[in-house]
Write a structure and sequence with these properties.
With 238 residues, this protein is of the alpha/beta class. It has helices at residues 16-19, 27-42, 98-106, 126-137, 167-180, 183-187, 191-196, 202-211, and strands at 2-8, 47-54, 61-62, 67-69, 78-80, 115-121, 143-148, 219-225, 232-237. α4 (126-137) crosses α8 (202-211). The longest helix has 16 residues, at 27-42. The radius of gyration is 16 Å and the shape is globular.
Length: 238
Amino acid sequence: MLVAAAVCPCPPVLVPEVAAGAAPELDALRAACADAVGVLAASRPDRLVVIGHLTRPGPGVFPQGSPGTFREFGVPVDVALGVPPEESADADPPPLPLSLAVAAWLLRGWRAAPVEGVAVEELLEPAWCAAAGRTVAQAAGRVALLVMGDGSACRTVKAPGYLDDRAEPFDATVAAALAAADLGALAALDPVLAQSLKAAGRAPWQVLAGAAEDAGLTGELLHASAPYGVGYFVAAWT
């Protein structure tokens, strides 16, 4: 059963070494993410499941200890998902996709519960996202989720997707849904519109909506901003 959830964005610039001289610009965002992860620890979960997205076909489940890296950005920063178990059933776990590598960085030092990662393809249909969420919620008696995903990337002319007038209303809908733990609003997000706006968080958020069915959680929006023209949201559901 789902007992708590945190929603965080997953830009690699959350890692200060990647952001370099621009790192202070995202200090408030990092602090909000730390607060959200703290909510998960306080929920006393039996298992933490991290939900991210895949940008290309690949493995969808990542065991505790799976490695990630930010070396592609020119910095010698390596991470692992949770504390690697002393004896892993998978001696050679697959490398983490970027969304889960950012989560692993946020979870450095996490010891509150065993961790696993689940990554869904960006174009996964909403019904399949919801079904995946229901399955995840049954992974243990008390399940917590860390859900990684960005909003639209089309908020300004300098944004990765350039300026799109639909981006701000889309992000406003997401922010309101996360603040109210509105499962219906998250489930209703249009995958075609989300793809057009480069909103990679759509599928993970819809997994969250499926997992939270009948959980009775309430939401709080801890942060919402759009630096670099990309929507970033941090929320805690308890």
